[in-house]
Amino acid sequence: MKSHLSKLGQRTVEPPISWLMHAALSQPDLISLAAGFTDNPSLPIAETRALLNEILRSPKTGQPALQYGITAGETNLRQLTARHLQKLDDAGATSKSHSWERVMITGGSQQLLYMTLEALCDEGDIILVEDPTYFVFLSILQSRGIRARGVRLERNGLNLAHLECVLQSLKRSGELCRVKMLYLVSYFQNPTGATTSFRKKRGILKLLKKFERAAGHPIYLLEDAAYRELRFKGPDIKSALMVRGAAERVIYTGTYSKPYAPGARLGFGLLPEPLFTSVQRIKGNHDFGTANLLQQLLAGALATGLYDKHVAKIERRYGQKARVMKQALAEHFPANVEIWESGGGLYFWARLPKNVSSSVKSKVFQTALKNDVLYVPGEICYADDPARAKPDNEMRISFGSASEENIRKGIARLGAVLRKFL
C-alpha cells in the first residue's frame, strides 16, 4: 500500500539502469556491454593523489577545501570552466553566452538536469526529445509526471522537418503551451553515437523561436554535451552557445565525470535568466553547494593542464577500444544488422531487421543473458509517445568499461546469439 506517499513517490518506477546494473553484478561471468561506465585502467590515480596532496598540504588551502562552499560553485572553477568552453567553441572572452557568471557547478550533470526540470516544468508539461534518447533522462521525466514527445533522429542529428511537424501538431491540439524545452544529447549521443551538426543546432533554435509566440513563453534548447570531450575521430563541432541569441534560450550542460573521473562527481551548466536564479535557489534546498574538495581538485586539474593531458590520453584509449569493437562487429554480427559507428563517446548502435525483437522480454535478450553477455535494449531509449509505436529491434552496445579481450569475447557471444535468430 503506497497511498500515503506523494504523487511523485507513487508514480516513480524502478529506472532501467538499476536492473541493468543488478544483472551485471549478479552474474560474475557476465560480460556487460551495457554499462556506460568509463575505462578503469585510464582513471588518473597518481595525478589525483598529487593534486589532493597539494591542496591538503597546508591549512591555507586545505581548510577552505574541506569547508562548505558557494551554492552556485566556487568562483575559480566557474571561471576556469567558462574559459575551457570558450576554448572548445573558439569563442571570445567577451562572449555573453560563455560568461562565467552563467556557470553553475553541480554534483554531476544529472543533478543539473533534474533541477532544471524542477524549475521549468509542472506535472503534465511536455519535453521534446530525440527518438531515441538518454533513457535515464526519460526516467526523470516519468518520475516527475512530465510527458515526452519524440523527434526523429538521423546520423547527423534531429530531422528538422519532423521537429516542425511535431510542433505544428502540438499547436493544432492546443498543447504547445505545455512545451517547455527540447532536450538534445548533441555529441556522440547516448544511445546512438550520433552527433548533431552546427547547422542543425541553428535550425532547431530557429524553429523553437518560430513557435514561441503561439506557446506564450520561451521554449528552451537544453544541449547535453556530456560526451563532447570523448572525441577520437573528426573535428569538434561548435555548441549551440555559438548561435545568435543563444544566451537567452540555450541551457548547456557538461560534465567532468566522463572525461576525468566519475568518482569526482562534478557537472556544470550554463543557464540563462531567470532560470539560473531559480535553479540556484533549488540547489540551495538540495545541498547548498557541491562538494568543495572535488571542486578544488578539478580546478587544480584545469589550471595545471593536467585535465587536458588526461583528455588527450582517454581519447586515444577510447579510439583504440572502438576500433576493436568495430572489427569484432564486422567479424561476428550478421550482415543484415545495421551498425551506427561513432567518432567519439562510448557506444555503437545496432539495428536488427524489423521482425526480430531485442526487447527486455525477447528471446534475443534472454538468450544473450544465458550466454553471459548484456546489452541495453533499444526500446528503453524511446519515450512513451502516443504518436508512434516504440521500435523494439535495436540495441546499445558500450565499449567504455570492458577490456579489449572482453569486447572481443562479448561481441562474439552476442553475434552467436543473433545468428540463431537472424
Task: Please give a handful of descriptors for the protein shown.
Aspartate Aminotransferase, domain 1; 44% helix; globular; 2 domains; Aspartate Aminotransferase, domain 2; alpha/beta; 422 residues; 4-stranded antiparallel beta sheet; 8-stranded mixed beta sheet
Explain the layout of strands and helices.
Layout: H1 7-11, H2 16-26, E1 31-32, H3 45-56, H4 59-65, H5 75-89, E2 103-106, H6 109-120, E3 126-131, H7 135-144, E4 147-154, E5 157-158, H8 160-172, E6 179-185, H9 198-210, H10 212-215, E7 220-224, H11 246-249, E8 250-255, E9 267-270, H12 275-286, H13 292-304, H14 306-332, E10 338-340, E11 347-351, H15 363-370, E12 373-374, E13 376-377, E14 394-398, H16 404-421
Parallel strand pairs: 1-12, 3-4, 3-6, 6-7, 7-8
Antiparallel strand pairs: 2-9, 4-5, 8-9, 10-11, 11-14, 13-14
